[in-house]
Amino acid sequence: MPAVNAAHPSPLDVRGRPLRDLRISVTDRCNFRCPYCMPKEAFGRDFAFMPRDELLHFGEIGSIVKACVPLGVRKLRLTGGEPLLRKELEWLVRGLRAIDGIEDIALTTNGSMLAQKARLLKESGLDRVTVSLDALDDETFRAMNDVRFPVSRVLEGIGAAIEEGLTPVKVNAVIKRGQNDDQIVELARHFRDQPVILRFIEYMDVGTQNGWRLEDVVPAGEMFQRIAAELPLEPIAPNYPGEVARRFRYADGRGEIGFISSVTKPFCSTCHRARLSADGKLYTCLFATEGHDLQTLIRDEDADPARLREAIATIWAKRDDRYSEIRSDDTRDLPKIEMSYIGG
Ligand code: SF4
Asked: Structurally, how many domains does the chain consist of?
């Protein structure tokens, strides 16, 4: 069993980072085709998504989470693809909610089905949601999701989440220069009087399909300036060490906003996140090129919790990831996993 210290029950990785968050992808499918994540050209009608029998069952996901709690995991985030496409997801939420030691269960969604599902998810034990919304202008939004899905339906979903108490509702907007950067101030104006925390995400070179170029990135500093020119901002302290977003409040006290700057201000030094794919591979970085198969361990040997925990502890203890710190022309074409497969 790798070395641990009293302060952190979890084994520390090579860079002294504890394991605290587990992001769980429950499907590689999505009903949107956002070009920065799942471009239509690469994920067309003939794309071979994961067959059902390769997906981890809810019980297997529960076993992995149970194995991670003694290692320090306290927060879970359900992701996809689009997690609400996974049938009866509320049963998984109920199962995870019942696991001792889990303090927070969140879900990241494109919001397309949230209006219908918000109450059931809340009743099942979900704490909060993060909704991806890259534009308020309907035409821009339809182009950003590339399936002509109307923005009004996602705004309805955000409203339902607020009503059902899945709060704080966070809204994430990925900004790409020349595509939706004209939406930055409009989004800020729209959400600042709502119980919503708006976060702007720098466009990233995730996966291998989005044709990422540095010149398409709008740096967080520039986004900040654009907003502050009209709506003055002041910094607020992070909620906890390793929080990805840098937090600000409007100087007039009407709301909070954040910036996630993986490109211009990497935060790898405090990254305590692991990611589990829907077919049971553990990844230690969003930009990883390979994962660690846990599914075979579970299915072959009937999920021996101690062996599972030891395997995860060993994976984490060897972790040395810091992709955003080493991003360069040389790393751009690495065979990185797709974000639609591993979730954000
Ligand atoms: S690039 Fe990898 S190590 Fe760095 S913050 Fe992102 S997930 Fe963590």
From this structure: 1
Half-sphere exposure of 334 (CA within 13 A, CB side): 17
306-335 per-position pLDDT tens digit: 999 999 999 999 999 999 999 998 998 999
Give this prediction's pTM: 0.95
Q: How many of the other CB atoms lie within 10 Å of CB of 319?
A: 19
Give distance in angstroms: CA of 193 to centre of ligand 1. Answer: 32
Task: Show Cβ contacts of residue 213 under 8 Å, excluding neighbours closer than 6 positions.
Answer: none
- Tens of pLDDT along 62-85? 999 999 999 999 999 999 999 999
Range of the domain at 276: 21-342
**Structural domain includes residue 92:** yes
Domain membership flag for residue 4: no
179 lies in some domain: yes
Range name among 145-154, 247-256, 286-295 with the lowest pLDDT average: 247-256
The alpha carbon of 266 and the centre of ligand 1 are apart by a number of angstroms equal to: 8
Atom of ligand 1 nearest to the CA of 322: 3
CATH number at residue 315: 3.20.20.70
Instruction: Tell me whether strands 21-25 and 273-276 are parallel, antiparallel or unpaired.
Output: parallel
| Crossing angle for the helix pair 138-145 and 151-164, to the nearest 10 degrees | 90
Residue 340 Cβ contacting ligand 1 at under 6 Å? no
